Amino acid sequence: MSLKNKITSDRLPKHVAIIMDGNGRWAVQRGEDRIYGHKKGVDSVREIIEAAAELKIEYMTLYAFSTENWNRPWEEVEALMELMVNSLNNETKKLVDNNITLKVIGDIDRLSDNVRRSLDDTLEKTGKCTGMTLVVALSYSSRWEMIKAVRDISYKIKEGKIDPANIDDKIFENFLTTKGIPDPELLIRTSGEVRISNFLLWQIAYCELYFTETLWPDFGKEELYKALVEYQKRERRFGKTSEQVHENEN
Ligand code: FPP
Prior knowledge:
Blueprint: E1 15-19, H1 23-29, H2 34-55, E2 59-66, H3 74-97, E3 101-105, H4 113-126, E4 133-140, H5 142-158, H6 169-173, E5 186-189, E6 208-211, H7 221-233, H8 242-246
Parallel strand pairs: 1-2, 1-5, 2-4, 3-4, 5-6
Bound molecules: farnesyl diphosphate.
Farnesyl diphosphate (FPP) binds at residues 20-25, 34, 38, 41-42, 45, 62, 64, 69, 80, 83-84, 87, 136, 191.
């Protein structure tokens, strides 16, 4: 029986974020090169987006390329960028057909013109979709994002447009690249690594974390359902006591 039947549809996380890890190891285990693993990783991306959209999850953020990934061997960076362009070109129509909006977070100024063009095209074509929002983190790191926010806020202070005394969570969030996107309620990381790796550090303050040994190319629909079932077993307290959380139930 599929685990899908165990998911309670009215208690789904609004936003699921995923650190897709393990493509390289998956390929090396099969005597293939790392790029082959990334190609298989794209198949998992497709399957997971489909499953999330079917469940009517509102936001899904995928960590596709970190600021630190720029330090990988140049051939791997090039291959990943090519994969990204091809995936965007091949999948744009499917995204539109499924009413999925694409958003990108990250330092996109570092991307090549070629990648930027494909991105802009998909952003434009999916711009009016009203179903799930797919957020792709590209050339993204949380520290980059927060430093940028501090810098941008400082300029506003200098211009006299923000009073430092008024800075609170809301104002700060308006300067993050995730402005307008609700915080993730579930963060999944594949491949057995138990780290956050500079991903959405501000936004995951109250997020449920789910780690699995499964390598990203092996992460399919059932794996997503398993994470959601586990999420629904957890009690989310946001700093309150268990009694406070349940006090209005009877
Ligand atoms: C981590 O595996 C994966 C990545 C750095 C890239 C993820 C990218 C994709 C799946 C392809 C494109 C994505 C989209 C949204 C179209 P790793 O190389 O760190 O694996 P390892 O830890 O086993 O070496």
